[in-house]
From TrEMBL:
Organism expressing this protein natively: Pantoea septica
Transmembrane residue ranges: 62-82, 89-110, 140-166, 187-207, 296-316, 350-369, 403-422
Active-site residues, Swiss-Prot/TrEMBL: 471 (phosphocysteine intermediate)
Name this polypeptide is given: PTS maltose transporter subunit IICB
Domain of life: Bacteria
InterPro entries the record matches: Glu_permease_IIB, PTrfase_EIIB_Cys, PTS_EIIC, PTS_EIIC_1, PTS_Glucose_EIICBA, PTS_IIB_1
Record key words, sorted: Cell membrane, Kinase, Membrane, Phosphotransferase system, Sugar transport, Transferase, Transmembrane, Transmembrane helix, Transport
Domain PTS EIIB type-1: 449-528
Cellular location(s): Cell membrane
Limits of the PTS EIIC type-1 domain: 2-438
Topology within the bilayer: Multi-pass membrane protein
Length: 528
């Protein structure tokens, strides 16, 4: 069970690789969409050929990224879970994804289903009514030139996970001397080519049932309306300490659970896919379908990230002991600014979620309430973060139909609500937020030039460290013996919190600067 927990966390970390890319691509795409909107830039700019050609080029680049997301997720899943030889795992994952879809395509062809026989016109000629024909045709797609089921990102994840299972089993496989050249890491792509097409055949047989089940869950959540948004917002915050919120988010963003829309005869599944399609093909997604999708995206986070948590940071600062206020001020200002601009909240959240379950639960419920209210007020702001960048690019520049002003109106309410609620609970319950720790527990911060050495020491020394990586905010380390890890030592390096996710996996929360810290630690360990 503990090994499974470790693998789930590794999988969640792996998902961050493609998400970080498409989040940035989404911002560029949102800016491009705004610059091609005459209501924002004026008719004269819309008629300027060179700028519009450049903007069109940006749209095509971003559109190509979104269209090939399944491949990216296949590669990311394999890299994240490979025990060693990660480049080989990534290479095999691409092969696995392609050959799996070849297996699906061959099975469909055996049933008489091809790109030509599944067009809406062909299906209508076969006796289907127009609506049914369009719905049926949308179940299929051309992916990398292969006719296959439209499985979206889930297909890539399936291929990546199966490939990495083969990789971890066979990357050290030794073969007889006569064919030893094909052993080891070279054997992984070979066995992948043999196994994944067969998986594709099996998947083609069960996908209609599996897809229908996922769609049914999505319909149930869709029918729940704003209550589904409340559950998502609350559950995501509750899962923050575990790191499993990434998996919940990607499920909603890229599977039918986050919504289904048909655009130009093609089925779009997942809230983020639908929103991105509205950016790459303006006017193609009906507003109602878009609102159903964005209720699970950035709009519900904005009042919390831009107003609520910065106000909570102010409350933590005001309740700190006078002699510690200067130290706490720097910490809270950095966390509040990060939350306000980018929507990255963990540096602030880990200041209170472990020391006060009451504050933790209050924060989760208020986040869920924000999601619900933004859904009820028919907002239409997408992307994934929830800071001021998303508000400006996807809300204000998106025009009045996004109803972006409601985020500011709720933010005006959330700021004092968070401030006074946090201040009351901290003082009344004696919560040991930063600056209120017991004197014998308050860690002294080490100098910047000593940080890397102290981190390695806190993790039990170089001999105790098996692997080091990071996501957006967390240093993720696999250790041989968890008993050798000293939390207090790690906290002296500027960490906001420590999360032991299994008997061998630990996460040290540093915030957005974690990438630099991870590189420094890897370099010191000689594995950069």
């Amino acid at each position: 069970m503990k090994q499974l927990t470790s693998q789930i966390h590794a999988f969640g970390k792996a998902l961050m690789m493609p998400i970080s890319v498409i989040a940035a691509a989404g911002i560029f795409l949102g800016l491009a969409a705004a610059m091609q909107n005459p209501a924002i830039t004026g008719d004269a700019f819309a008629q300027m050929q060179v700028p519009q050609l450049i903007i069109g080029f940006i749209r095509k680049v971003a559109g190509a990224l979104f269209a090939n997301l399944p491949v990216f997720f296949a590669v990311a899943s394999a890299i994240g879970l490979a025990k060693a030889e990660k480049p080989t795992a990534a290479f095999a994952a691409v092969i696995g994804y392609i050959t799996m879809n070849v297996g699906i395509s061959a099975t469909l062809a055996a049933k008489g289903l091809t790109a030509a026989t599944t067009t809406p016109a062909a299906l209508q000629q076969a006796g289907m009514d127009q609506t049914t024909a369009m719905m049926t045709s949308a179940e299929y797609i051309q992916m990398l030139g292969i006719f296959t089921y439209n499985m979206s990102v889930l297909g890539g994840v399936i291929a990546g996970l199966l490939t990495v299972l083969l990789h971890n089993r066979f990357y050290t496989q030794q073969l007889p001397t006569a064919i030893s050249f094909f052993g080891g890491r070279r054997f992984v792509p070979i066995v992948t080519v043999v196994v994944l097409p067969l998986v594709g055949v099996l998947l083609a047989l069960i996908w209609p049932t599996l897809g229908a089940g996922i769609a049914w869950v999505g319909e149930m959540i869709g029918k729940s309306g704003q209550y589904g948004a409340f559950l998502l917002g609350t559950a995501e915050r509750i899962l923050i300490p575990t790191g499993l919120h990434h998996i919940l988010n990607e499920t909603v963003r890229f599977t039918p659970i986050g919504g289904i829309a048909i655009v130009d005869g093609q089925t779009l599944v997942g809230a983020l896919n639908i929103f991105n399609a509205s950016l790459t093909h303006p006017g193609s997604v009906p507003d109602d379908a878009l609102r159903n999708a964005t209720q699970f995206l950035a709009q519900g986070k904005i009042p919390v990230m831009m107003f609520g948590l910065p106000a909570a940071a102010l409350a933590i600062y005001h309740t700190a002991r006078p002699e510690h206020k200067q130290r706490v001020k720097a910490l809270m200002m950095a966390g509040a600014l990060t939350s306000f601009t980018t929507g990255i909240t963990e540096p602030l959240e880990f200041c209170f979620i472990f020391v006060s379950p009451v504050l933790y639960l209050l924060h989760a419920l208020l986040t869920g309430l924000s999601f619900m209210l933004m859904s009820m007020l028919h907002l239409m702001i997408g992307n994934v973060q929830g800071g001021v960048i998303d508000l400006v690019v996807f809300g204000m520049l998106g025009g009045s139909k996004t109803h972006w002003w409601w985020t500011l109106a709720l933010g005006v309410v959330y700021a004092p609500l968070y401030y006074y609620a946090f201040r009351f609970i901290i003082t009344r319950m004696g919560v040991e937020t930063p600056g209120r720790e017991s004197e014998d527990e308050k860690p002294q911060q080490v100098a910047a030039d000593e940080r890397t050495k102290v981190i390695i020491s806190g993790l039990g020394g170089q001999a105790n460290i098996e692997d080091v990586d990071c996501c957006f905010t967390r240093l993720r380390v696999r250790v041989k013996d968890m008993k050798e890890v000293v939390d207090q030592t790690l906290l002296t390096t500027g960490a906001n919190g420590i999360n032991r996710v299994s008997e061998h996996d630990i996460q040290v929360i540093y915030g957005p600067q974690v990438e630099k810290i991870a590189n420094e630690v890897k370099s010191a360990l000689g594995v950069a």
